[in-house]
Design goal:
The protein has one domain: Growth Hormone, Chain: A (Up-down Bundle). The chain starts with a helix and ends with a helix. By secondary structure, the protein is mainly alpha-helical. The protein contains 20 helices and no strands.
Length: 438
C-alpha cells in the first residue's frame, strides 16, 4: 500500500490519534523487537555447545554470530529502509518477521559451519526489515518531545529479547540440546507476524509533527544519504553508538562463554545469571536513558548526548574490575552497574536521529545509524574478540578470552568522545531541522 492509499484509508480511522491505540502499536512493536533480539542473541548462550558439536574455533564462532550476520543485516537495511520511506511499513515488518523466524528454526538443522553460517545470514536478511520501519512508525505516532522515551521503550526489546534468548537457549539446551532451542524460539514468530499485519495501521507520514509536509516527495537516494551524512551531530551519534555496540556485542557474545570456560559454570546457570541479573539491569538502563533524556532536555537539549557519554565512560572501570575478579559471583555482581550504564544511550540516540531527520528520510536515517553501529558493533565486536582470543591463546592459554574482552572495553573512551562531540552541534542541528519543516 502506498502512502496515498494509506492517507485515504487508515488516516480516516480515529484509532490513529487514540492514545490507547498508540500505546498498543508501541507495545506490539516492542514484542516484535523482543523476537528480533531473542532470535539474534540466542546463539550467544549456545556458542559453546555449537562449537563442540560442529568442531568450530573462536574465529568461526565470531564470524557466524557477528560479521557475516551483520554484513547482510546492515547492507540490506538500506534498500529496505528506502522502501519503508515510501511504502507500507507494517507489511514490511510482518514479512521480515516471517523470514527471520523461519531462518532461526533452520539453524537447528545445521550439520556444519557453512550450513549454520547460511542460516544465520538468513536471520540477518530478515531482521534488516525490522527497526528502520519500526522507528519511522514510532516517530509518526509520537511527537518530537516524546520520541526518546517511546524509542527507549521500543529498545526494551534488546534486553528483554536477550534475557529470553539466554534463558530459553540455556535451559532448553541443558535438557534437549541446542538444536531444539532454535526450533522453540523461531517458529512462534510466524504467528506474531500475522498479528502485526492484521492489527497495526499505517499512519500518514509526519502525523505527529507540527509542521510536517505530508505531501512531500521522497528525495533521491544519494541526495538523502548526502543530507544525512553532512549532519555533524548525526555522524557523531552514529559513531558513538557504533563503538558502544562494539563493546556491547563483543561482551554479550563472549562473556557467557568466558564464565563457562574460566569459571566452569553450567550453561543453564550462566544463562540464568546473565539473563535475570544483567538483563534486568540493561532493561532498567534502557528505559531510564530515554525518560531522563526527555525530561532533562527540556532545560538543555545537549542532555541527549551528555547522558550517553556519561554512561559509557563510567561503565569502563566496572568491567575491568569484573574481568579481573576470580570469583564468578562477585564478577557478575560488579557487572550490574555497567550493564545499566551502557544502556543509557539507546533512547536518546535513536530519538535524536528521528528528530534530526526530515520526515521522508526517517527510516533511511535509522537504517544508516543501524548500518554503522551494526557493522562496527555487531560485525566486528564478536569477530575481533574471537580473533584476539585465538591470537592470545599461546600466551595466556585458557585465559586468552579474558584479555581479549579487556582490550575491547577500551573502545568506550572513543565512544564517549563522539557523544561529547555530538553535544557541541546538537542544539544548532535540531533548530535547523525544525526551521526547515516549518
Amino acid at each position: 500500500m502506498s502512502d496515498s492509499q494509506a492517507a485515504g484509508t487508515d488516516s480516516l480511522d480515529p484509532k490513529l490519534k487514540s492514545p490507547k491505540y498508540r500505546s498498543y502499536v508501541l507495545a506490539t512493536l516492542v514484542v516484535v523487537y523482543i523476537f528480533n533480539f531473542l532470535d539474534r542473541q540466542i546463539v550467544t548462550i549456545l556458542a559453546e555447545p555449537i562449537k563442540v558439536d560442529l568442531g568450530l574455533n573462536d574465529t568461526q564462532i565470531g564470524l557466524m554470530t557477528g560479521l557475516a550476520f551483520a554484513i547482510f543485516y546492515t547492507v540490506l537495511g538500506i534498500p529496505i529502509a528506502r522502501l519503508a520511506d515510501r511504502a507500507n511499513r507494517v507489511s514490511i515488518i510482518s514479512a521480515a518477521l516471517v523470514i527471520w523466524s523461519g531462518m532461526t528454526a533452520m539453524c537447528g538443522l545445521a550439520q556444519n559451519f557453512y550450513q549454520i553460517l547460511a542460516a544465520r545470514i538468513g536471520v540477518g536478511v530478515g531482521e534488516a526489515g525490522c527497526s528502520p520501519p519500526a522507528h519511522s512508525l514510532i516517530a509518526d505516532y509520537y511527537p518530537p518531545e516524546q520520541r526518546a522515551s517511546a524509542l527507549s521503550i521500543y529498545a526494551l526489546g534488546i534486553p528483554i529479547g536477550s534475557i529470553l534468548g539466554l534463558l530459553a537457549g540455556g535451559w532448553i539446551a541443558e535438557f534437549w540440546g541446542w538444536r531444539a532451542a532454535f526450533f522453540v524460539v523461531g517458529l512462534p514468530g510466524i504467528l506474531l507476524a500475522i498479528l502485526v499485519k492484521i492489527t497495526l495501521l499505517e499512519p500518514i507520514r509526519g502525523m505527529s509533527d507540527a509542521a510536517a509536509a505530508h505531501g512531500a516527495e521522497q528525495p533521491p537516494l544519494f541526495e538523502t544519504i548526502s543530507t544525512l551524512l553532512k549532519n555533524r551531530t548525526m555522524v557523531h551519534i552514529a559513531m558513538g553508538g557504533a563503538l558502544t555496540s562494539f563493546v556491547g556485542y563483543g561482551l554479550g557474545q563472549w562473556l557467557p562463554a568466558y564464565f563457562i570456560r574460566i569459571h566452569e559454570m553450567g550453561i543453564a546457570e550462566t544463562a540464568t545469571y546473565f539473563g535475570l541479573v544483567l538483563g534486568v539491569a540493561s532493561a532498567i538502563g534502557t528505559v531510564l536513558g530515554g525518560t531522563l533524556a526527555d525530561r532533562l532536555a527540556k532545560r538543555d537539549v545537549r542532555m541527549y548526548a551528555w547522558l550517553p557519554a556519561a554512561g559509557v565512560l563510567l561503565a569502563f572501570p566496572f568491567y575491568v574490575a569484573a574481568m579481573l575478579s576470580n570469583n564468578p559471583y562477585v564478577a557478575i555482581a560488579i557487572m550490574v552497574a555497567p550493564s545499566l550504564l551502557n544502556s543509557l544511550w539507546l533512547g536518546p540516540a535513536f530519538g535524536t536521529i528521528q528528530n534530526l531527520a526530515p520526515t521522508r528520510m526517517r527510516a533511511l536515517a535509522s537504517a544508516i545509524l543501524l548500518f554503522v553501529l551494526n557493522i562496527i558493533g555487531l560485525g566486528f565486536g564478536p569477530f575481533l574478540v574471537g580473533v584476539l582470543s585465538d591470537l592470545l591463546s599461546d600466551t595466556f592459554q585458557e585465559y586468552s578470552l579474558r584479555y581479549a574482552i579487556l582490550i575491547a572495553t577500551v573502545a568506550y573512551f572513543w565512544a564517549g568522545t563522539h557523544f561529547l562531540l555530538a553535544s557541541r552541534t546538537l542544539a544548532e542541528d535540531l533548530k535547523k531541522n525544525a526551521d526547515g519543516a516549518a
